[in-house]
Here is the input.
Amino acid sequence: MTRAMAEAYDRSAGAWRRGPARLYARLAGALLDRSPIRLAGATVLDAGAGTGVAGDAARARGAARVVAVDRAPAMLTAPAVVADLTRLPFRADAFDLAVAGFVLGHLREPEQGVRELRRVSAALLASAFAEDWTHPAKRVVEQVLAGHGYRPPPWYTAFKDGSERRLGDPVRLETVARAAGYAQVGVERVEVTIGSLTPAALVAWRFGMAHHAPFLASLTPAVREAARLEAERRLRDAPPVIVPMLVLGAT
Here is the structure.
């Protein structure tokens, strides 16, 4: 994760909790339901934890201890460690399971991050967005914000065109895990139905994303409110949110 990306997530922490966290919590639940090991009594590393929804899902399934790690300290809640996923401050085999929810695509070299996760945990559970996924809320909010001067930050453009797209393919995702030394690797495509969200919830989701929230914070309250109302109006007939995600389980 680049410094610019980490800073954007740091600045988005409040907006993230008000919007995207709701959707990501549902995705985390579907992810943890597919753990390659028994979670009851397990010690779990929530890698790239953000606001900790994957760790919460692990605790709900009986994990004895969860440690969160992320480069954006404002996103974290205790117990947590601020660190780079490619240089984790933990001893070898410190955890029973490493969970990496939608974080590997944020790394310039995902293989390096997976090797480090393999060092600290014999089991890995990771997710990535399938590369063909979209929803009208994404397009509408981009268009509305562009009308107010928004341009995607360079870190986001590089991320979308690079490692995220690469890991959105099941074969490529599996290859990264095998290259890190995991012997048993499986990738499953899972359709997670979030359901019908109100226009307000759809806009809160997109406004809270790290590539949008810092820009929105730079606008005056009146302009920000006008953008919100315009986006909500254009999303009155939006379809339900159904997220195709890839789930990697490895031991």
Q: What stands out?
A: The chain is about 45% helix and 20% strand.
